[in-house]
């Protein structure tokens, strides 16, 4: 499934990224058992996320997902269920240059997002079946406010989908002034490349605070029902 290591090696000289050794550097962000290593953006909304053993589409209502069990299974997931008000959730650790893998499931018409460094959002939406020439900033895989995906690689609601991302963090000088913008070197969605070398000039909306050298992974939980699993990052040595 993973193709980002090859992409990183190819673009490394041009972007200042160098692939880290996965065995030593891979950071598993979700352990499949609980929400250790994560914190809510709004600490009061504690019912937003829970860990379940399995997620599937509700056969009686395609706009709903059903989560069962309490985690610890091979298909365990972080589940944002059907609640009126929810909170984004973010990692306690912060990252800069990296490769990232994450899998997701959405029901019909649902909406979420994956934020690199708590700043730069890859849109998560049910975009299944939309023609390539009708894609917009709201569709799944868009780098929100920056670039529409080149093709629609979305699967049907209730199916697991995967992003593989190569990301270059913004650069700052000794005085804290930004000298280079963040960049999505490569985004592969369900095995198809949908972005290459996309510069992001600033936070894409809904971000946490100002830009800086490192930041957390944040999953949007204030919009709709979604599940995430198999989340890991491979930090890269910054040059």
Compact description:
Helices cover 7% and strands 38% of the residues. With 239 residues, it is mainly beta.
Number of strands: 19
Question: Order of helices and strands, N to C?
Answer: HEHEEEEEEEEEEEEEEEEEE
Q: Percent of residues in helical segments?
A: under 10%
**SS class:** mainly beta
Task: Tell me the strand percentage band.
Answer: 35-45%
CATH topology: Jelly Rolls
Name of the top-level CATH class? Mainly Beta
Report the sheet with the most strands, covering strand number, pairing sense and barrel closure: 8 strands, antiparallel
Domains (count): 1
Mean pLDDT: 90
Q: Unreliable segments (pLDDT under 50, ≥5 consecutive)?
A: 1-23
Cα shape = globular
């Amino acid at each position: 499934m993973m193709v980002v290591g090859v992409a990183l090696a190819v673009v490394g000289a041009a972007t200042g990224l160098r692939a880290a050794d996965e065995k030593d550097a891979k950071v598993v962000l979700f352990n499949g058992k609980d929400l250790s290593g994560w914190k809510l953006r709004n600490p009061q909304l504690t019912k937003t996320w829970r860990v379940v053993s399995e997620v599937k589409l509700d056969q009686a209502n395609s706009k709903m997902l059903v989560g069962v069990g309490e985690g610890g299974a091979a298909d365990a997931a972080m589940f944002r269920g059907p609640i009126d008000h929810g909170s984004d959730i973010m990692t306690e650790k912060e990252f800069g240059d990296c490769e990232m893998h994450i899998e997701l499931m959405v029901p019909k018409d649902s909406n979420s997002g994956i934020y690199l460094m708590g700043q730069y959002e890859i849109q998560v939406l049910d975009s299944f079946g939309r023609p390539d020439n009708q894609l917009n900033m709201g569709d799944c895989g868009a780098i929100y406010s920056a670039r529409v995906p080149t093709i629609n690689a979305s699967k049907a609601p209730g199916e697991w989908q995967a992003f593989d991302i190569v990301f270059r963090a913004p650069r700052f000088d000794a005085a804290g002034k930004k000298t280079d913008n963040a960049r999505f070197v490569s985004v592969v969605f369900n095995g198809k490349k949908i972005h290459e070398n996309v510069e992001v000039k600033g936070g894409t909306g809904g971000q946490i605070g100002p830009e800086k050298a490192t930041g957390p992974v944040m999953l949007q939980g204030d919009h709709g029902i979604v599940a995430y699993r198999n989340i890991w990052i491979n930090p890269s040595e910054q040059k």
